[in-house]
Design goal:
This is Ribosomal protein L22/L17. By secondary structure, the protein is α+β, with helices and mostly antiparallel strands. It has 13 helices and seven strands.
């Protein structure tokens, strides 16, 4: 028989006597706590009271947050909280004018959008969520910005400091790297197209891919167009003199004059716009196998052919980079001086016989 009763309750109900043993003294108490006339088949009674003293114990009051206080407040406070959490934008944005125009049209009587804290795509419009997504770690961001400002001021005020060459190039010249997904072709076939567009302007490379008989030429053409559009939209490349005036830059090639430079391949190129884009680099990456195909041979033999994949990566730069590289090569050649076949130095290690 199982009994779920505290031991101190049993001892309190049946106290042992001097003449009887503790076991025999507990029998009347055990029989009184069971149901049914037969103690062997009796079911134990749960003697725990229904309401314990600690069930209704009041916990210590904790300080509630400001949002919880506003929710528990009046209806006006709750309404103000919902409006602040469901604003479309947190602060000034690039689409602020469009949002103001939409709000003005809605006031004039145009159909309004359904109110809610989520967009049609399911993104949250709460200010806390937007701030958490755009600026996940504000303290680290502020420390990094402060560090960069201090470094820039120190370098600008120190007469012995000089801006590193890599940082100056990154500040004055633009570039974009675009990588295509893995295509259903091999590296040997795709590398021919990469060599065909390398060093050409974007317009010339598109013409080459348009009239090429290769199957993957159209895929490379699509990747070139995508990289060109991203370079214009994200980096402001290829905008001509208007783009330079808007960004505050000075045209280096000078007042609409056409200059002629020599590339690394030895070809002479005429440049009338330093912001014109060209394919600076193009290389091919090998991807995973996309399948296997049996190749049936003579005498019942079978070979397995692996179907490869490959992707092409393209780096677009402006003609300003090519002009700078040409000027650096010319300056280096001038610093080296004229080439001398036999340098004027003393002859040493002369012997009468051979050294072997």
């Amino acid at each position: 028989m199982s009994l779920s009763v505290p031991s101190r309750r049993l001892l309190r109900g049946a106290a042992p006597t001097r003449s009887a043993s503790p076991t025999t003294a507990l029998l009347p108490a055990l029989q009184s706590l069971s149901l049914g006339p037969n103690p062997a088949s009796a079911r134990p009674i749960h003697t725990t009271p229904s309401n314990q003293w600690f069930w209704n114990r009041k916990t210590k009051s904790t300080d509630e947050s400001s949002i919880a206080q506003q929710v528990k407040g009046s209806s006006v406070d709750r309404k103000a909280l919902v409006e602040s959490l469901t604003k479309r934008i947190e602060g000034p944005a690039i689409f602020e004018d469009e949002i103001k125009e939409t709000a003005a049209k809605q006031k004039d009587g145009a159909p309004t959008l359904p109110a809610g804290s989520f967009t049609r795509a399911g993104a949250s419009l709460a200010r806390e969520h937007l701030a958490r997504a755009v600026d996940p770690d504000p303290r680290s961001r502020v420390r990094w910005e402060r560090k960069m400002v201090i470094r820039q001021v120190q370098r600008g005020t120190n007469p012995y400091s000089r801006e590193p060459r890599a940082e100056k190039i990154a500040r004055t010249e633009r570039q974009l790297t675009s990588k295509s997904p893995f295509l259903a072709t091999s590296t040997k076939k795709l590398v021919k197209l990469a060599h065909q567009i390398q060093g050409k302007t974007v317009a010339e490379a598109l013409v080459q891919m348009r009239f090429s008989k290769k199957k993957m030429a159209q895929e490379v053409r699509y990747q070139l167009e995508l990289a060109r559009d991203l370079a214009i939209a994200e980096r402001g490349m290829g905008l001509g003199s208007k783009g330079q005036e808007a960004s505050g830059e000075v045209r280096e090639s000078g007042d609409g004059k056409t200059i002629e430079i020599q590339t690394k391949d030895g070809k002479w190129v005429k440049i009338d716009d330093p912001t014109r884009m060209y394919v600076a680099e193009a290389w091919v990456n090998r991807g995973p196998w996309r399948g296997k195909v049996p190749d049936y041979r003579a005498r019942g033999r079978v070979n397995i052919k692996h179907r490869p994949t490959a992707g092409i990566s393209i780096v677009l730069k402006e003609e300003k980079t090519r002009i700078r590289e040409y000027e650096e090569r010319v300056a280096k050649k001038l610093r080296q001086g004229p080439w001398v076949h036999l340098p004027d130095r003393p002859i040493t290690a002369q012997r009468q016989h051979y050294s072997w």
